[in-house]
C-alpha cells in the first residue's frame, strides 16, 4: 500500500509541474494581446499626420490675410498636434517594451531615442501627465490670444482641468520619489546584511555566536 501511495506521489509531482507550466505559459503569453492595441495606436498616429497635413495646407492658403495673432494661433494648433503625436509615440514605444517585448530591431540603430528602454511604468506616467499638461497649456494660451471668443464658463473648466493635470503630476512625482527612496533604503539594508554575513564567514563565527555578540539582531 505504501509503495502504491509513494508511486502516485511521484507521478502527481511532474503532472502538477506540467500543468503549472502550461497555465503560466498562457499567462505570460497573454501580454501579446496588447500588441494589436499598440498597432492601433500606430494607425492613430497616422491619423494625426493626416490631420496635421490638412491643417498645414489650410494655414498656407490663409497666410496672406493672417495677422500676427492669427499666425501665432495657427502655429500653436500645429504644435498641439505635434505634442499629441509625441505622446502617442512615447506610449507605443514605452508601453510595448514594458509590457509586451523588447524592440530588438532598434537596439543597434543610431536613430534609437535616448529614452527608449529606460522609461519604466513610473516614468511613463510622468511623461504622460507632462504631455497632457503641455497640451492643456497650449489650449489655454490659444484662448488667451483670442479673448473675443472666450466662453467664461468653458474657460473655468479648462483651467480646472489644467490644474487637475498639474496636481496629478505632482502627486505622481512625490509617490515615485518616496518609492525610490524606500527602494534605496531596502537595497542599502541588503548590502549591509551581505557585508555582515561576509565578515561573519571570514571570522569563522557561527550564527549562534553572532547572536550572543549582538543579541538585539541589529
Overview of the molecule:
- The chain has helices spanning 2-29, 35-62, 68-99, 121-145, 152-203, 207-213.
- It is mainly alpha-helical and 218 residues long.
- It has 2 domains: 28-150; 153-218.
- α2 (35-62) packs antiparallel against α3 (68-99) and α3 (68-99) runs antiparallel to α4.
- The longest helix is centred in the C-terminal third of the chain and has 52 residues, at 152-203.
- The mean pLDDT is 78.
Q: How would you summarize the topology of this molecule?
A:
Elements: H1 2-29, H2 35-62, H3 68-99, H4 121-145, H5 152-203, H6 207-213
Helix pairs in contact: 2-3, 3-4, 4-5
Short description:
The chain has 218 residues and is an all-alpha fold.
Key structural traits:
218 residues; mainly alpha; 6 helices; elongated
Strand content: under 5%
Number of helices: 6
The secondary-structure element order is: HHHHHH
Instruction: Assign a percent range to the helix content.
Output: over 70%
Give the overall pLDDT as a whole number: 78
Cα-based radius of gyration, to the nearest Å: 29 Å
Morphology call: elongated
Structural class: mainly alpha
N-to-C CA distance: 52 Å
Tally of domains: 2
**Main sheet?**
none
Write down how many β-strands occur, each being a DSSP E stretch of 2 or more residues.
Answer: 0
Poorly predicted tracts of residues: none
